[in-house]
Amino acid sequence: MSRKVRAVEPTTSVSDLKAMMETEGFHHLLVMRKDKLLASSAIATSPIAKARAVDIMTAQPKTIFPDTLLSHAITLALHWRISCVPVVEMKR
Predict the structure, then answer these.
(1) What is the 8-class DSSP label of residue 1?
(2) pLDDT (tens digit per residue) in 53-83
(3) Residue 37: inside a domain
(4) What is the CATH number of the domain that holds 43?
(5) Which of 14, 30, 41, 84 gets the most CB atoms within 10 Å of its CB?
(6) Residues 51 and 13 sit within 8 Å (Cβ to Cβ)
(7) Cβ proximity of 4 and 28 under 8 Å
(8) Confidence band for 46, pLDDT divided at 50, 70 and 90
């Protein structure tokens, strides 16, 4: 689990997402609006011109709580074929 987390607005441009990921070494970013998790976003190697986070995000991402067993998180990731499972303190 990464303790260093970055969140972006849905209107953030893909070029800004890519720059943030490259600069800070992230593979996924959380897309949030007013402290509510909207999605998780990963960027392909060739982003769409003029696209925004909302255009490429995974809406309603699968999430877990801090006390979730690791085995459950692994099962969730394998079942849904996802590479990132955000850990949230409250379902928002």
Answers:
(1) -
(2) 888 788 888 999 999 999 999 999 999 988 8
(3) yes
(4) 3.10.580.10
(5) 41
(6) yes
(7) no
(8) very low
